[in-house]
Amino acid sequence: MPNQTTLRRKLKAAETKHSRLTNALAGLGPIRKGTIYQTRLRCGSSGCRCQRDPDARHGPYWLWTAKVEGKSKCRKLNPMALKLYRQQSKNYAKLKQNIQKMESEGYDVCSPLQKAEDDWVAHTAEIHEQTLMAEGDKVNSWMMGANIEDKKPRVLIYFGGAGVYYDKLRESVDAGFPELQFDKLAS
Ligand SMILES: [Zn+2]
């Protein structure tokens, strides 16, 4: 049974952008910690009514906040970023649930079943093909991860719709991560 230190170390590893576990989880893309919420903001101009009247504040805007390496970060999200950040937050939640499952059931190792990984990559590519984005992405944009060296460009954003994506994550969690194989290290 992993102790607290082990769990913290595992979480730390999971939070690392290129952690092996993140990449290994079948179909799971980048993860993102933090909170996404909608709010109205005051602008910078001192003469603006928003400075005194809460009803005159601008927005609403979507914001993301998180503590990164001890510092609070905040970012305004445009619709494209909002979509991406939400997906990454869901990925993070799933990863956390995965670690909790491993912890509570005493597993030490998890790895994606190759078939699940292949299915997901194929499904994501198929959905992407059906969108107009595919045309633009033929030039190898960052969304395909073409800017990451030593990695074959592939579709990094799921275009099947947020609802479908979240349902799939939820299904996987509810079914006990059928696309993953859990093992115990010989002690
Ligand atoms: Zn203002």
Describe the structure.
There is one protein chain. The chain has 187 residues and is of the alpha+beta class. The protein has 2 domains: 18-104, no CATH class; 108-187, no CATH class. It has helices spanning 4-15, 20-24, 79-105, 114-129, 133-137, 162-174; strands at residues 35-41, 58-68, 71-77, 109-112, 180-183. The strands form 2 sheets. It has a 3-stranded antiparallel beta sheet with strand order 1-2-3, covered by helices on one side. α1 runs antiparallel to α3 (79-105) and α3 runs parallel beside α6 (162-174). The longest helix has 27 residues, at 79-105. The radius of gyration is 20 Å and the shape is flat. The termini are close together. 15% of the residues are buried. The structure holds zinc ion.
Give a topology summary.
Layout: H1 4-15, H2 20-24, E1 35-41, E2 58-68, E3 71-77, H3 79-105, E4 109-112, H4 114-129, H5 133-137, H6 162-174, E5 180-183
The structure holds zinc ion.
Provide the residue-averaged pLDDT: 75
Question: How far apart are the termini?
Answer: 11 Å
Most strands sheet: 3 strands, antiparallel
What integer value in Å does the Rg equal?
A: 20 Å
The gist of it:
42% of the residues lie in helices and 18% in strands. It contains six helices and five strands, in the order ααβββαβαααβ.
Please tag this protein with its features.
single chain; 187 residues; alpha+beta; 2 domains; three-stranded antiparallel β-sheet; two-stranded antiparallel sheet; flat; binds zinc ion
